[in-house]
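// run 5 | inverse folding | seed 20
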């Protein structure tokens, strides 16, 4: 079935298929990185905006 689909592709469909592949690969890699990230790092990064004090440099 896939061979028939690939054989009937014109030039434009190849670009669309390639962009779809890049889209899925990007989000799969992003998901793997987020799953493997340490929880302590996530907690540290999430608390940064709350712990900083803005200084007036005027």
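// decoded
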């Amino acid at each position: 079935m896939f061979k028939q689909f690939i054989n009937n592709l014109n030039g434009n469909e190849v670009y669309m298929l390639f962009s779809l592949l890049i889209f899925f690969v990007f989000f799969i890699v992003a998901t793997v990185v987020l799953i493997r990230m340490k929880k302590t790092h996530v907690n540290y990064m999430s608390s940064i905006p709350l712990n900083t004090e803005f200084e007036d440099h005027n």
